[in-house]
């Protein structure tokens, strides 16, 4: 029986294993150094906030794996010997494979800041990071203030986490508005205000210079690059993005760049070795996507596709229309298609922006200035139907059509106030003024 | 893992540490209200009962209101679940267990030893807690209180006060607001005030909470009840007809259009209490597969029991030589068997495919019921059915299901098993509505394409123990007989994945292999095969 070894029990590795099992009888082993069972990384914050316990973040009950004959091995792969098809574990043992899939995810970026390895400094990616946070920031008496460095999705989640325990948070963001490398300015500015409404000390255009240690090697304070201001704190969260977690492959013959280099079939340079999820890097970007896409959905889709290839139905990775979602404190965000930030958008991309007077809901619709083709939508505080936008994008609808049919795409709970008329009015008015 | 999992078991770390001063004052006020009740229970002679009763209930209301305002209005609108798994009371910690024991004791005393609460027997006046409520009962219906009146008042107070708390907690969510307003209205009006007024109008009418439908209202077809209706002229007959209509006409129509939620989380009193006072315990329901298995066995057994019991009850009083009703035993039993057969045949004909393996269980259930009814018909005598005294069956049902299951376990165990254990494991009404919801209803929870991140918030907060995530992460709609449509899964989902809606029956159940967002060819290949 062919033995498929998968390094990484995240969404990509697990999806792959499930689909291989559906289609075949192969022997499957999933390896992870982090936890015994698959858990949802995206739910880490809810454990700290007390919404859930760790066990609730596990999407499958523990009997699931044995029932589906998926073997789980807890251990850290230190080295891959591709000639003898052997994995060497840090614990000293080895494992033979016939096919190897690398699905090792990411690790938090550290940019060489002085003091970045002090006690009380942590990223927020692995379960161990959460345990660290629980240790250094159990409550507001032990942790008098926390500083978060890096204004992305994980940064704002970490701010929300600490906030839930009443720990004062200073949030350092390099950009002049929150996440405005991705969000258009109207949205980004709305989120700035929302963050401040939660009494989080948001510092825009602010960089970290260094982290200062106390006598015991613990964090004492941080110093800001621009002003030299020293902010006393007990915890520093480093959330300035993530990078593929592939250091253990550097000695091997597998080709790596920032991530593990793969072609459209998710194959590496060596036969029988594949990479999926956060750690895979496409030779060439697909459409507007980045070569490395560190999102949940990409990992899952790659798992779904690669299972076909491994089970004999060779299939290219051809993701459909882009979509994503997040939540900024109390405001939900969804996106379908492409809406670029002011900084990154091309000259043909025009935007229509509407914001509710309560300052917690807004949408931005991107369209082609010349052809009027609908390109994408960002929505805040209003839920939309994935299926409808996916269809409209496939059908190449123009922006007028989308604006006039927005109600069809509404996915808010029943009895919610509807804003389509107001949005449409704003849209038509705007056209008249141009 | 260090996530405070043990903290809730430690008395040295009471929750009170984390609450604000206003909240402490609010708690104190509420406790004073309860304390007055406790004093009454121990026969303190209050000079002016009416005043003290008002004070006590007012303090309970005031405490809850003040507490909720301080907990929610001081924060921005949004999901307020911080710390539910840390707090002792809501995570099966010491406080949770203590509350569970307290509630359970209360129910046992209420059902089996009402004299301890001060119920006057043999024409004596009430004393203690029940006597304390006499003034209110006199005011409403001109008679002294009973243990059921006291229970009714406390029940209504709980739904109204905690309903208010719930309204503030979900003040951003119109669906939650409306359905909570609805259960508060039905409890106050239909369960509490209207029956009292009906009694004032005509004191021969049996107690009838119009919204309580058979088989939840298992005594509606009891002899005393039916006689009561028939002996009170047109109103009585109208009420009895309404009772029959609500089972055979109103319920199926509404459930077809809206799912069982129209009843379970908009109207029902048991649901009302669970959704308001029980809201803090919803996360405690087990989502494990084995819990689901137990659920299916238990709830359907209760359903069979309740059908057979009701039929047997009616059957027994139809058996008198000269009965006051136009039905004879033979006609009645044939009618029942005929109806069950029609329902069974229709389900098998239209839904055989969907039922899959469950069809066999359904067939067995049907056969058991019919067999029991036939055995009863051919072995029953005037006062013995199934070789036991006719009334014994009904008493057993009332005791084990009506009292112990729905009250003692269903509510007493809120802090241990979650707030809907009765609705989930025991309620025969929920079983019937659920059966229809699963097969003939427009209701479903739609899953939003590929947006799920498997975080588990939905499953965690499902009071019915449905593993919502298991469906959502497969891109599959949730069509489950137990779903009461509370909408909390949808509310707490951080990615906007779930929507409760009524739409056409077609494509309602939509298993998918590959989720929306991936390669269209792959989706075609796997999802349409
Ligand atoms: C806090 C947080 C919130 C997020 N929220 C969202 C969101 O809302 N939406 C979204 O789309 N994405 C989100 N993401 C990103 C998303 O979680 C990741 O894209 C996804 O989990 C990546 O899955 P993966 O399977 O590629 O890798 P991972 O989930 O990282 O799994 C890889 C596993 O492999 C293990 N491993 C690595 N190296 C080795 C080795 N040498 N030996 C043994 N085991 C090894 C790791 O320990 C890990 O357990 C979030 C991430 C975080 C941290
Ligand atoms: S599935 Fe959702 S709506 Fe249904 S009972 Fe559970 S939480 Fe409520
Ligand atoms: S809460 Fe939403 S995102 Fe989380 S598992 Fe449930 S459906 Fe998925």
Structure in a nutshell:
The complex is a heterodimer of chains A (434) and B (529). Chain A is of the alpha/beta class and 434 residues long. Chain A is built from eleven helices and 25 strands.
Strand order of the largest sheet of chain A: 3-2-1-7-19
Structural class of chain A: alpha/beta
SS-based class of chain B: mainly alpha
Distance between the termini of chain B: 44 Å
User: Termini separation of chain A (Å)?
Assistant: 67 Å
- For CATH, the homologous superfamily of the largest domain in chain A is named as FAD/NAD(P)-binding domain
Second rung of CATH, namely the architecture of the largest domain in chain A:
3-Layer(bba) Sandwich
Work out the helicity level of chain B.
55-70%
**Percent of residues of chain A in beta strands?**
25-35%
Poorly predicted regions of chain A: none
How many discrete structural domains of chain B?
2
| Contiguous helical run count of chain A | 11
Largest sheet of chain B: 2 strands, antiparallel
* Average pLDDT of chain A: 96
Helical element count of chain B?
Answer: 22
Q: What is the radius of gyration of chain A? A: 23 Å
| List of distinct ligands in this structure | flavin-adenine dinucleotide, iron/sulfur cluster
CATH class of the largest domain in chain A: Alpha Beta
Can you give the mean pLDDT of chain B? 89
Task: Describe it.
- The complex is a heterodimer of chains A (434) and B (529).
- Chain A has 434 residues and is an alpha/beta fold.
- Chain A has three domains: 3-107 and 243-310, 3-Layer(bba) Sandwich (FAD/NAD(P)-binding domain), CATH 3.50.50.60; 121-240, 3-Layer(bba) Sandwich (FAD/NAD(P)-binding domain), CATH 3.50.50.60; 323-433, 2-Layer Sandwich (Enolase-like, domain 1).
- Chain A is built from eleven helices and 25 strands.
- In chain A, the strands form seven sheets. Chain A has a five-stranded parallel beta sheet.
- In chain A, a hairpin with a 5-residue loop joins strand 14 and strand 15 (230-232).
- In chain A, helix 1 (11-23) runs parallel beside helix 7.
- The longest helix of chain A is centred in the C-terminal third of the chain and has 15 residues, at 296-310.
- Chain A is globular.
- The N and C termini of chain A lie far apart (67 Å).
- The mean pLDDT of chain A is 96.
- By secondary structure, chain B is mainly α.
- Chain B has two domains: 1-75 and 113-201, no CATH class; 203-529, no CATH class.
- Chain B contains 22 helices and four strands.
- Chain B has a two-stranded antiparallel sheet with strand order 1-2. A two-stranded antiparallel ribbon of chain B has the order 3-4.
- In chain B, strand 1 and strand 2 (388-389) form a beta hairpin.
- In chain B, helix 12 (289-318) runs antiparallel to helix 15 (390-409) and helix 12 (289-318) crosses helix 18 (428-439).
- The two termini of chain B are 44 Å apart.
- Classes of the chains: A alpha/beta (434), B mainly alpha (529).
- Chains A and B meet through helix 1, helix 2, helix 4, helix 7 and strand 21 of A and helix 7, helix 19, helix 21, strand 4 and helix 22 of B.
- Bound molecules: flavin-adenine dinucleotide and iron/sulfur cluster (2 copies).
- Flavin-adenine dinucleotide binds next to helix 1, strand 2, helix 2, helix 5 and helix 7 of chain A.
- Chain A: Its cofactor is FAD.
- Chain A: GO terms for molecular function: oxidoreductase activity.
């Amino acid at each position: 029986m062919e033995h498929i070894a998968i390094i990484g029990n995240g969404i990509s590795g697990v999806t792959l294993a499930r689909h291989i099992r559906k289609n075949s009888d192969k022997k499957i082993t999933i390896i992870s150094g982090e936890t015994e069972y698959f858990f949802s990384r995206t739910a880490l914050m809810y454990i700290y906030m007390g919404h859930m316990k760790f066990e609730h973040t596990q999407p499958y009950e523990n009997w699931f794996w044995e029932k589906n004959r998926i073997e789980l091995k807890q251990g850290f792969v230190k080295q891959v010997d591709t000639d003898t098809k052997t994995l060497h574990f840090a614990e000293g043992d080895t494992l033979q494979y016939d096919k190897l899939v690398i699905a090792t995810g990411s690790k938090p970026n550290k940019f060489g800041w002085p003091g970045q390895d002090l006690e009380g400094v942590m990223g927020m990616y692995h379960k161990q990071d959460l345990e660290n946070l629980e240790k250094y920031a159990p409550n507001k008496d032990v942790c008098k203030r926390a500083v978060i460095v890096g204004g992305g999705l994980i940064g704002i989640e970490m701010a929300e986490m600490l906030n839930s325990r009443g720990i004062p948070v200073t949030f350092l963001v390099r950009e002049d508005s929150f996440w405005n490398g991705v969000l258009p300015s109207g949205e980004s500015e709305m989120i700035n205000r929302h963050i401040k409404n939660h009494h989080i000390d948001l510092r825009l255009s602010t960089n970290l210079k260094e982290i200062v240690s106390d006598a015991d090697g613990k964090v004492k304070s941080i110093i800001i690059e621009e002003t030299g201001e020293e902010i006393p704190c007990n915890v520093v969260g480093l959330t300035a993005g993530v990078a593929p977690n592939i250091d253990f492959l550097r000695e091997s013959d597998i080709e790596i760049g920032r991530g593990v280099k793969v072609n459209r079939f998710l194959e590496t340079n060596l036969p029988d070795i594949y990479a999926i999820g956060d750690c895979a890097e496409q030779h060439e970007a697909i459409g507007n996507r980045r070569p490395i896409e560190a999102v949940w959905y990409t990992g899952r889709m790659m798992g779904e596709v690669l299972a076909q290839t491994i089970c004999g139905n060779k299939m290219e990775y051809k993701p459909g229309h882009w979509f994503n979602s997040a939540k900024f404190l109390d405001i939900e965000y969804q996106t379908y298609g492409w809406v670029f930030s002011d900084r990154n958008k091309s000259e043909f991309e025009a935007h229509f922006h509407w914001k509710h007077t309560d300052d917690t809901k807004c949408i931005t619709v991107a369209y082609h200035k010349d052809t009027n083709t609908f390109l994408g939508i960002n929505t805040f505080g209003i839920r939309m139907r994935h299926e409808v936008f996916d269809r409209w994008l496939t059908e190449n609808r123009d922006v007028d059509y989308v604006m006039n049919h927005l109600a069809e795409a509404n996915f808010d709970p029943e009895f919610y106030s509807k804003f389509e008329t107001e949005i449409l009015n704003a849209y038509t008015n705007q056209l008249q003024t141009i | 893992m260090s996530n405070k999992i043990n903290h809730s078991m430690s008395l040295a770390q009471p929750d009170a540490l984390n609450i604000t001063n206003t909240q402490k004052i609010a708690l104190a006020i509420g406790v004073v209200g309860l304390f007055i009740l406790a004093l009454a229970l121990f026969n303190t002679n209050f000079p002016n009962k009416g005043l003290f009763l008002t004070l006590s209930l007012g303090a309970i209301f005031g405490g809850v209101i003040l507490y909720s305002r301080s907990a929610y209005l001081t924060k921005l609108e949004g999901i307020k679940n911080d710390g539910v798994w840390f707090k002792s009371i809501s995570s099966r910690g010491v406080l949770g267990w203590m509350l569970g024991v307290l509630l359970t004791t209360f129910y046992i005393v209420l059902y089996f030893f009402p004299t301890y609460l001060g119920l006057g027997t043999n024409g004596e006046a009430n004393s203690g807690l029940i006597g304390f409520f006499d003034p209110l009962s006199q005011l409403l219906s001109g008679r002294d209180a009973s243990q059921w009146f006291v229970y009714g008042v406390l029940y209504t107070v709980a739904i109204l006060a905690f309903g208010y708390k719930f309204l503030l907690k979900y003040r951003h969510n119109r669906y939650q607001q409306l359905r909570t307003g609805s259960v508060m209205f039905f409890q106050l009006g239909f369960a509490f005030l209207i029956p009292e007024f009906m009694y004032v109008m005509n004191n021969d009418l049996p107690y009838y909470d119009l919204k309580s439908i058979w088989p939840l209202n298992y005594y509606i077809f009891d002899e005393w009840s039916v006689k009561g209706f028939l002996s009170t002229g047109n109103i009585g007959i109208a009420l009895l007809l309404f009772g029959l209509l609500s089972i055979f006409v109103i319920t199926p129509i509404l459930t077809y259009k809206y799912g069982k939620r129209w009843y379970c989380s908009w109207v029902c009193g048991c649901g009302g209490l669970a959704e308001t006072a029980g809201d803090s315990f919803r996360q405690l329901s087990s989502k494990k597969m084995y819990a689901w298995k137990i659920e299916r066995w238990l709830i359907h057994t209760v359903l069979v029991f309740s059908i057979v019991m009701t039929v047997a009850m009616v059957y027994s009083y139809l058996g008198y030589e000269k009965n006051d009703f136009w039905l004879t035993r033979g006609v009645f039993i044939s009618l029942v068997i005929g109806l069950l057969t029609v329902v069974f045949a229709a389900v098998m004909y239209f839904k055989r495919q969907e039922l899959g393996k469950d069809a066999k269980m359904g067939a067995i259930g049907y056969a058991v019921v019919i067999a029991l009814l036939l055995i009863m018909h051919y072995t029953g005598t005037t006062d013995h059915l199934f070789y036991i005294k006719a009334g014994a069956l009904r008493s057993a049902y009332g005791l084990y299901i009506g009292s112990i299951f729905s009250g003692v376990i269903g509510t007493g165990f809120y802090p241990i098993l979650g707030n809907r254990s009765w609705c989930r494991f025991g309620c025969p009404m929920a079983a019937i509505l659920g059966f229809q919801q699963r097969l003939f209803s427009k209701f479903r929870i739609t899953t939003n394409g590929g947006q799920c991140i498997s975080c588990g918030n939905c499953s965690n907060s499902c009071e019915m123990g449905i593993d919502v995530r298991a469906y959502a992460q497969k891109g599959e709609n949730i069509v489950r007989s137990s779903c009461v449509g509370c909408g909390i899964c949808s509310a707490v989902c951080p990615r906007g994945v779930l929507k409760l809606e009524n739409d056409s029956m077609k494509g309602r159940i939509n298993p998918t292999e590959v989720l929306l967002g991936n390669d269209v060819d792959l989706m075609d290949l796997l999802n349409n095969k």
